[in-house]
Amino acid sequence: MSETPSYSEALQRLEAIVAELERGGTDLEATVKMFEEGSELLRACQAHLDEAEGQLKRLRLAEAEAELEEPEA
Fold first, then answer.
1. What is residue 49's predicted lDDT score, i.e. its pLDDT?
2. What stretches of the chain adopt beta strand conformation (E)?
3. CA distance 61 to 17
4. Please, are residues 17 and 44 in contact by the beta-carbon 8 Å criterion?
5. Strand, helix or coil at 70?
6. Is 7-69 a CATH 1.10.287 domain?
7. What confidence tens digit (pLDDT) does each residue in 11-31 have?
8. Neighbour-count burial of 48, counting CB atoms closer than 10 A to its CB (0-12 exposed, 13-18 middle, 19+ buried)
9. Domain coordinates in residue numbering, the chain
10. What is the pTM of this model?
11. Three-state SS for 67?
């Protein structure tokens, strides 16, 4: 894969690979290639999820800091 796909694109392709592998009937070489592609897609999905988790943590931290800075009424 030359370009990192979006989370949705990677997940959709990963689901298609899993479905094709579950159907069976592919030769060993094709199965190995699909497995390799699926592994790359899984890493891409995990990277997207890690980034989203980091963004959420930063947002929660910013909110918590803002609450601490607010004067009590």
1. 97
2. none
3. 38
4. no
5. coil
6. yes
7. 999 999 999 999 999 999 999
8. middle
9. 7-69
10. 0.77
11. helix
- Residue 14, number of CB atoms within 10 A of its CB: 19
Long-range CB contacts (within 8 A, 24+) of 55-63: none
> Which tokens go with 1?
């894969």
Q: pLDDT tens for residues 50-71?
A: 999 999 999 999 988 888 887 7
Distance (Å) of CA 15 to CA 5, 18, 53: 14, 5, 22
Q: How far apart are the C-alpha atoms of 25 and 31, rounded to whole Å?
A: 9
Q: Tokens standing for 65?
A: 């800091």
Q: Which residues of 19-37 are buried (b: 16+ CB within 10 A; e: fewer)?
A: eeeeeeeeeeeeeeebeee
Give me the sign of the Cα torsion angle 39, 40, 42, 43. Answer: positive
**Averaged pLDDT for residues 35-59:** 96
